Amino acid sequence: MAEQKEGALSVYRVLDLADSKGAYCTKLLADLGADVIKIEPPQGDSTRSIPPFVDDMPHLEKSLYFLYRHANKRGITLDLETSEGKAIFKKLVKTADVLVETYPLGYMASLSLDYPVLKEINLGLIMASITEFGQTGPYKDWKGSDIVDFAMSGVMISSGFSGKVPCNLPGTPAYDATSLLAAISILIALYHRGTTGKGQYIDAAVHESSRIGLFPWLVPIYSHALTDERITVVTDVRLADSIYPVYPCKDGYVRVLTITPGQWNALVRVLGDPEVLRLPEWQDFIYRVGNAEDLYTLMVEFTPNYTMFELFEAGHREGVPIIPIHDMAGFVNNPHTKAREFFVEVNHPVIGKALYPGPPYKWTETPASIRRPAPCLGEHNEEIYCRELGFSKGDLSVLRRAGVV
């Protein structure tokens, strides 16, 4: 019988009080083996109402957003605004290594559940608070959203189609970038605790983290282009089109990366060495950025002669990154996706079996994996309250009738 290896974080417990700002953070920890307990209000977490839904039917158990970001977690219901709920939460804190919360600034303090209080209960607790603009600073009281943070990160200058308004990426990119950085901060804090025995407080601001996590180098390149006297900036072209241009081909589209002269020369060879692309000015990357619209007009004379795979293979051979842009079916059925076994079948008690995106990395000794589906609302109440915290089933019924769980 094959040995079942444990995840890298299998000895840790995480309490999850996160909405969409931090749902991916706790998912990353859960995929690495941590026992993540998703704590929801009795009416359900806000991420359960985020579309799309299975069969396009709004339902607490059918949000694809929730199903993906909460797989691997156990789930309980608890009203933190009741005295009984606070007392139960403090019992859970005693057993926890990490707490992740995304409430508005000052909310946890209003419940007397902020870090100074909780660290007295558990000196080793690592608490991460994810807010739009952080706990301190001139913007701390501002309201925000994923698209606001995406825009303020500077990345929106690269998004959308030429001639149309900029747009957000699908999903919640600013929140997910923040979740990733918060998860990394938690891992560092766990490592530090192994030496000192003490926990830490992590203040994660989406505004700041999205700047770090969503290619902020696009902004200085754009600023450089504006001040470069050799070129004329084409303001109607999205910057991503200038740096990572997308070109049509026989069966779809490809994205091309030609930063260095060697990559540009390789692309010219891929396209049959046309004389118009061998003009010396095209060797200059900044010149190509500033004249992206003219370059696009030239490139589409050649790229439609090839398929996505032909361009991809030729780029690999010659030394230039050329990436097929797949639709959803193309990505799922791509040989590379299948070879990596990226999609994992998960059986959920309400929606049944479905393929889920697996962890983005594969490790041999402490594998990240999907071990369980996202919890149904209150699915693990009895397991955690009765078997772990010592409540009787009668106690649990009383708490349920009182709206505490």
Q: Which features would summarize this protein structure in a list?
A:
single chain; 2 domains; three-stranded antiparallel beta sheet; formyl-coa transferase, domain 3; 18 helices; six-stranded parallel beta sheet; alpha/beta; Rossmann fold; 405 residues
Q: Could you walk me through the main structural features you see in this protein, from its secondary elements to its overall organization?
A:
Helices cover 38% and strands 14% of the residues. It is α/β, with parallel strands linked by helices. The protein folds into two domains: 265 residues, 3-Layer(aba) Sandwich (Rossmann fold); 92 residues, formyl-coa transferase, domain 3, CATH 3.30.1540.10. The relative contact order is 0.13.
